[in-house]
Amino acid sequence: MARKNENAPKLTLRQAVPGDVPALVDLTARVYTPEWGHSAEMLRSQQTHFPEGQFVVEYEGRIVGYCATFRIDESLALAPHTWMQITGGGMASRHNPAGNWLYGMEVVVHPDYRGMRIGQRLYQARKRLCMDLKLRGISFGGRVPGLARNIQRYGSAEAYVHAVVEGRRRDPTLSFQLANDFEIIGLLRSYVPSDYESLGYAAHLVWRNPALLDQPDIPAVQSPRHLPDSVRVATVQYLQRRIASFDDFAMQVEYFTDIAADYSADFVAFPEMITLQLLSIENEELSPVETIRKLSQYTPQVKELFSRLAVRYNINIVAGSHPTEQPNGDIHNVCYVCLRDGSIHEREKLHPTPSERNVWNITGGDSAATIQTDCGPIGVMICYDAEFPEVARHLVDQGALMLFVPFCTDVREGYLRVRYCAQARAIENQCYVILSGNVGNLPGVNNFDIQYGQSCILTPSDFLFARDGVAADSTPNIETVLFADLRLEGLARARNAGTVQNLKDRRYDLYETRWLRQSR
């Protein structure tokens, strides 16, 4: 049987094409009823006027989300209007190629796929398009479906919307828009008269382009997509404790993933050897090598768990590491990187520590390739790998802007070796380095008795970054989550015009780093 290609995305967001029209007719009819769904003529017209502004989300080959936009002048975008007026009857016929605002005329998500943050992905696509085109912002009319059933309590649409804005009331749609950085500039009366839940009203919402002016160039990297100006990263300092089942492990991992997603993180990172916690389920008396081989039996469940969470919570997950048996019988320490498009990528620890080799019989991998993400290329160095400068240099030479370091250290001295070296990698490669470690104890688990951890997010050391080169730091040995917004254009400035310019100033005439095996 052919091996499934795990690197292939399950979920993709792409530009709509004419061949999508029949599926989009069915999707909008399912959401709005056949009477109010979009006709094929409307959908083809939208693509004809502004093809780059129409997006679909596919999940396992099925179109489950759709959004439509067009360009318009500010005077029209910010003035009172109805949906029929401003969209030209849904045809996007008022599209102005020179318009300085993006108008969001539609977002549709299949009811069976809600909860997977499809709408959030579509709004992010709009924002990226707005910034790529250097437009002033996005405007649209947002539904207020809680209005009809609450109008008697609040007395007016204005009072209801005010309560939602102040957080005293939650509206299923408007609260979502506000959480995605849209602001209300007024109410639109008779926006869609047939929207009885909203009593015909819509909230007039805008999002202003934060990167409109004076944005420096982002470094050229091997990425098929435009990079965001800022990436929000979460790193988990994970407490190892006894559990009774795999479901207990899954519940803890999902808890932290949910937290990171609620804070709109693009990445969440977990520690090295996080899955050793699973050995406490049966707590058998096994030799260290037998223990690791038994743990490897959980590999399919571990991969399925993290991949499912990445898609469900719309977040890229650096899933720590997990001992994995190879086809030849060797055990490698593998980091599974599960992207929010459903693809799974494996990165192996290259340098097992002496105790990993001697106690667990773990052998090292031989490849260090970057992973292309929607936030640019990333690299993974598992714990001890961070203590070898060649690995980080190889990843940065491939275009990595962020290096993730899942680690597992037992005492402070071991932790500091990893941290000091990671800080050096950030400085010498002018990149961000994210550390994620375990804390707590697992008595009876061989070679995993005690943990010392202090997770952190490190930056280069220059005026553009945090004073001490530390974007976020934790208190040692407590369970917590750290967040930091990492500005990618800051790396561009540092590399091109910083106080020191390590990447530019290398002496290629004196030395080189040559990788002997081709990265997979």
What is the structural class?
A: alpha/beta
Task: Work out the oligomeric state of the chains in this entry.
Answer: single chain
Largest sheet: 13 strands, mixed
Taken as a percent bin, the fraction of beta residues is 15-25%
Terminal CA distance: 22 Å
GO molecular function: hydrolase activity
Domain N-acetyltransferase: 11-212
InterPro entries: Acyl_CoA_acyltransferase, C-N_Hydrolase, C-N_Hydrolase_sf, GNAT_dom
Organism: Dyella humi
Based on the model shown, name its key terms.
alpha/beta, hydrolase, 29% helix, globular, 520 residues, 13-stranded mixed sheet, hydrolase activity, Acyl_CoA_acyltransferase, single chain, 15 helices
Account of the protein in words:
The protein is of the alpha/beta class and 520 residues long. It has helices at 21-32, 40-49, 74-77, 83-87, 118-132, 151-154, 157-165, 174-179, 246-262, 288-296, 299-312, 354-360, 389-397, 412-429, 488-497, and strands at residues 11-15, 54-59, 62-72, 101-109, 137-142, 183-188, 202-208, 230-240, 267-270, 316-319, 322-325, 331-338, 344-348, 371-373, 376-380, 402-407, 432-440, 456-458, 470-473, 480-487. Strands 8, 9, 10, 11, 12, 13, 14, 15, 16, 17, 18, 19 and 20 form a 13-stranded mixed sheet that branches. A 7-stranded mixed sheet has the order 1-2-3-4-5-7-6. β14 and β15 form a beta hairpin. Residues 213-224 have low confidence and may be disordered.
